[in-house]
Amino acid sequence: MAITRVTSGVITDGTIANADLADDAVGVAELSATGTASSSTFLRGDNAWAAAGGSNAPAFHIVKTATQNIADDTWVKVTWDSTIIDTNSGMSLANEKWTVPSGEGGKYFVYSCTFLYSDTSHNLQETSAEIRVNNTGKLSSNQRNVNDPMAQFVLYTAGILDLDAADYIDIWVHSNVGSSNSICHASASGKQTFFGAYKLDGIA
Amino acid sequence: MAITSKGLQRLGFDRSEFVLEDAGDGAYIKEWNSESPQPTESEIETAHAEWQAEYDSTEYQRLRAPEYPPIGDQLDALFHAGVFPADMAAQLQAVKDKYPNA
């Protein structure tokens, strides 16, 4: 009489070989992995279902939609008025700075673009922009044209910064101008003057 | 009015002698590197007002400058009007003859 059913009790522990299993016989439900299997997760080597790739969060991008006078020869903190992205609510428009959320320290790519111009004549001689961490300059850019003053300068500043939770970053600009002040340009589109950052996931 | 670079420069200080900063509540002197004592805010404001009056009084110069014809065009007009000294006119004519206007 043929054996049609074998109960687990008569199988010696640790004796079922790979050859005893049919191809495609083991389904996802039979795995003991932690986490939840789905179309957006994969099974890691530590037997856990995890989301594929990194999220690069926290990330933010804010823009300037109202012009700001920049007093001659003075480091002035740039004001911001419109938040486009702020994944972890780190931005304070009231304080014009972004603070690293709790538990989110790490390497960040930080960038800013500031568009400065002089209003009545081409008397803008030099401009600088600075990305500060806790009010200390970390990344900067400068354009200088003393002998032939210009009407406008655009400063793009970017780099990777090592930030700790609770560190804050903000943008400062400086200009030497023939009149009382230059102007930090702004537009409804927010294309000319902006500030942002995102975490570099997986980089120690 | 407030603390300004123009006011401090009017008082005779060089840009390298101070650093101004404005975090949103008005400019202040962040660093004072001069051997001379720091002037009062009132002194700086008075000096700035003097600079501003002088600057405003010469606005016509700044408005005129970009609307004048280029210097080269002005000199060319003088050449064609025959008012240059003979020696300078000869030098200009020599260049024109070397590269004639076809």
What's a concise summary of this model?
The complex is a heterodimer of chains A (204) and B (102). Chain A is mainly β.
Number of strands of chain B: 2
Gross morphology of chain B? elongated
Summarize the main sheet of chain A: 7 strands, antiparallel
Considering DSSP H and I runs of 4 or more, what fraction of the residues of chain B is helical? 40-55%
Give, in spatial order, the strands making up the sheet with the most strands of chain B.
1-2
Largest interface: A-B, 17 and 20 residues
Query: How does the helix and strand content of chain A classify structurally?
Result: mainly beta
Low-confidence stretches of chain B: none
Topology of this structure?
The complex is a heterodimer of chains A (about 200) and B (about 100).
Chain A: E1 41-43, E2 49-51, E3 59-63, E4 68-71, E5 74-77, E6 82-86, E7 91-92, E8 97-99, E9 106-117, E10 124-133, E11 136-144, E12 152-163, E13 168-177, E14 181-184, E15 194-199
Antiparallel strand pairs in A: 1-2, 3-6, 3-15, 4-14, 5-13, 7-8, 8-13, 9-12, 9-14, 9-15, 10-11, 10-13
Chain B: H1 5-10, E1 18-22, E2 28-32, H2 41-57, H3 59-64, H4 71-80, H5 86-98
Antiparallel strand pairs in B: 1-2
